[in-house]
Structures are given as structure tokens and as C-alpha cells.
Target: Probable tRNA sulfurtransferase
Amino acid sequence: MTTMSALGEPCVLLKLGEIVLKGKNRELFERRLISNIREALQELGLKVDVRRRHGVVAIFLPLGATVEESEAVAQRVADVPGLVWIHPAWRVAKDPDSVLKAGIELFRDREEVKRGAAFAVRSRRRDKRFPMRSNELDRFVGGAINDEYGLPVDLRHPELTLSIEVDRDEVFVFTGGIPGQGGLPVGSSGRALVLMSGGIDSPVAAYRMMRRGLHVDFLHFSGIPFTTSESIYKAYALVRKLDRFQGRSRLWVVPFGKAQQSIRSSGQDRLAVIAQRRLMLKTAEEVAHRIRASALITGDALGQVSSQTLTNITAQDHAVELPILRPLIGWDKTEIMAEARRLGTLEISELPDEDCCSLLAPKRAETRAKIEDLKQIEKRLDAEELAVQLADSIQEYTL
Ligand code: ATP
Ligand code: MG
Model:
């Protein structure tokens, strides 16, 4: 364990993204963000103090906290949407000499310093009452570092940058940081329901919408009783993987095998996939009303498979009244896979399974399904009533 009390106290400084553009609503967004940060940090079991400062958020750790602890805090908040940069930092007294001492201390024993790397000091003042202007402070601290370590200054392409931010009650000093998720705080856009297959696309779609401020529930249709529970385990593992971005995730599972069987025996083979997708959406809409979600989310990408042609996507939109959000509509499969890899969902999605869709695989799927034909099938099925029954048979899995 390392404590470096000579430096001041460890803390973490957070830079907000788009929230800064929010004008009158900014207050609301910031409050939501702070409550999300507090909730995410609960699992670390540290008593932290999350404070709003002018344009930034500071997380203060308890007295005597270690560098490792502040790094753990930084790593955890790096998954909270709404932040663009996370800087593990030091909180030092608000006078030029303390800042200088901290700067020198921060450079000590660094590998870059031993190599004689070029450096720069960048200061900014959020409190203009500080006795030195930014460029004066840069030169004051930079000069001292130069004296101490003999490093060259390079303001254009420094390898090591010492950042100094003068705030209301203290000065934050840091080098480097980790990029955040960007986007908006989860919950600031409301609630939605993701149709989660266990495949590659839907977990990525869920993440993209969380990042735009939606808190999401997950709905999975399993082929039970005609398949094993494998697809449910996969969906559960995916939800667990994604939970770090929003917290309090719930997975809902609908046993869909029997409904599929009726679709197969009631209609034209080529329309079965779209008919089944419409039934999923109708069921999802019923569930959404019950949990007060105001949109559905799917992992559709235009043209990826026959059910995702423009005509077929339109036929799906007509099945429900709630909006269907499709964040991946313009993405290539390679782009979706790269994002899934980054999120850690790809390796789960690639595990073999048999979800309900594998039960229905016609030799030739219709690429231009007609709504009238679909309505015929649905009439025979009594699809509206069936959707309600399916919603009644739902099972909840809480993380
Ligand atoms: P994914 O990789 O997300 O499974 P996909 O490329 O396999 O997508 P489809 O099987 O056509 O595409 O599914 C399109 C969308 O329909 C999925 O992204 C998902 O939102 C929804 N969906 C498909 N199957 C299921 C299921 N068994 N349970 C819940 N939603 C599903
Ligand atoms: Mg799928």
C-alpha cells in the first residue's frame, strides 16, 4: 500500500460530457449523475464524498486513503455514463508553494522522468482569486520541475503533462487520466425495455441506449419447453456484464416455445419469422406498460438478415404503438462486434445456444412481408390475447 501524504489527499476529478450543454436542465442532469456515481461506488465499501464543483465533480476519499483506493474509485466510475474524463488526482492547499511541492512529488520515481521525457504544465483557474494567473503558475511550477529533474519542456507534444486546476476550496493536481463512457447519465432519458436475444447485437444496442440516458430492463424469449435453459443463462450472463453501466438491472424471461409452435402451424412458412417477431414486440409492449417503460429497444441493423430489410422492419413497427429504438440500424457487423468485444459481451454472445429463433428457420424467408398477410395469421392466433398471456407467464431474474 502506498500513501503519499506529502502530496495532499488522493481524490478523483471527473469531467462531464454533454451535460455541460444542457442549459436550464443541467442541474437535473448533474444531480442524476452524482446519484449514479454514489450508487456505483457503494460496492467498493469506501466512505466517499461526491461533490459538485463548478463544471466538474470531485470525489473525496476518506482521510488516509491510499493511491490504490483512489484508482479503484476511478476504475469504477469509468463505467458510469455521462463522464468524459476521470483523473485520479491530489487535492492540495490553495497556495502556489503547495502546488509546486505536489508537482515535484508527482513526478518523483516516474519512469518517464528517469528517461528524461519532455513535459508540460497546464493550469486553469476556476477561481480567479488565486494569486497567480494560469501562465504564471505554469512557469512557476514548470521551472521548479525543470530545476529538480532537468527535464526538457515541450508545450506541443509533451510526454508527461502536469495538470493543475485551481478550484473554490482547493487545487487539484494530476497527470493523465482514463477516458469515460461519454453520453448522458442513466435515467435522465427515462426507462425502456430491451429485447435481448443472447446474440451479439442486442447487448450492444442496450449499452448504446443506456449511454443516451435510458435505464433499461431486459426481456428474453426462450424456446422453453422445446429448448434447454441455456439461452436464459446466456441472457443472464450478458445482463450481469452490462449491469456495471446502470445498476439495478432486471432480466425478464418469457417461455415462448408453445407460441412459436402455433405460429408455425397457423401460417405461411415464409412469414413465420416476421410473425414471431411481431408477437415478441406485442408481448414486449404489454410488459413495457406493466413496468412503465416508454420504448422498446432491439439490435436490428438494416439489411443484416432477411427479417431486417426495410419492409420487414416497417412491418415490425406497425405491430406496436410504442416507439422501437434501434441504435445499431446503421452499423456494420464488424463495428458491432468490435463494440461487443470492448464491452466484454462478445465472448458470452459467441457461446453456443439454442434460443427460440432456432426453432423457426424456414428455407426461404420473406424479405417483403405484407402487413395484411401478417394480420391474417395474427387473427387466427388471436395474437393480442396471446401477448397478454405470454406477459402473464413472465419470470423475473434480479441480479
Ligand atoms: P442478436 O445478435 O441481438 O441476436 P441478430 O442479428 O441475431 O441479433 P435477429 O435474430 O434477427 O438478429 O434479432 C433481431 C432483434 O430481435 C435482436 O437484436 C433482439 O433485439 C430481438 N430478438 C431476437 N430474438 C430474441 C429473443 N429470443 N429474445 C428477445 N429478443 C430477441
Ligand atoms: Mg439473434
Remarks:
- The two ends are 32 Å apart (CA to CA).
- The CA atoms of residues 223 and 357 lie 8 Å apart.
